[in-house]
Design a protein that fits this description.
2 domains, about 35% helix, elongated, Ribosomal Protein L4, Chain: A
């Protein structure tokens, strides 16, 4: 399929051919959903933890008579039923990551790109560069392009001035092509790819 290429000044700069096996697929929600679950599970820190009975710093001595007290036969204040005691079956430090085949992950990214292209939410830029790190100038340029909530993907390296200006704008994310991922694509309303990003994606999935 063909797509128009625009400049930051919202002027036309030719067209580009987008590969159908990357941008022309029929999006499958189940594959995209599996990838989002995989990403969100993997990013969890897993550092939540409560103390077990062996980690509570309280006496383990019996605090009452075995018989005649009229109460249960407790042997330690570390038990979970007492204030200051342990937590029964509490969370432990662990990894929340789940497995997902590499081919499914690659396919999910292609389906996410196809979803954006099919819904008209894909914009191809000639290049993403700024002469100075001025957020005000970049915001005005984005207004001409109709970008108020977008993910911008550049080539192998992001222009430093462009990245510095964009990071002061809310709902605008800028990533190199190596960092493109399904969750960030779906999180933003528009997906903006530079010509170098398109070339890099097509080289990856050729």
């Amino acid at each position: 399929m063909k797509a128009d290429v625009q400049t930051l000044e919202a002027k036309k700069a030719g067209t580009v051919d987008l590969s159908d096996h990357i941008f022309g697929l029929e999006p499958r929600e189940d594959i995209i959903h599996r990838m989002v679950v995989y990403q969100l599970a993997k990013r969890q820190a897993g550092t939540h933890k409560t103390k077990t009975r062996g980690e509570i710093n309280r006496t383990g001595a019996r605090f009452g008579r075995q018989k005649g007290g009229g109460r249960a036969r407790h042997g330690s204040r570390r038990a979970n039923i007492f204030v200051g005691g342990a937590k029964a079956f509490g969370p432990r430090v662990r990894s929340h990551a789940i497995g997902l085949p590499k081919k499914i992950r690659a396919l999910a990214l292609r389906h996410a790109l196809s979803a954006k292209a099919g819904s008209g939410e894909l914009i191809v830029l000639d290049k993403a560069e700024s002469k100075a790190p001025k957020a005000k100038e970049l915001k005005a340029a984005f207004a001409k392009l109709g970008l108020d909530n977008a993910l911008i993907i550049d080539g192998a390296e992001v222009n430093q001035n462009f990245a510095l200006a964009a990071r002061n704008l809310s709902n605008i994310d800028v990533l190199p092509v190596q960092g493109i991922n399904v969750y960030d694509i779906l999180k933003r309303h528009k997906l903006v790819l530079t010509k170098s990003a398109v070339e890099a994606l097509e080289a990856r999935y050729k």
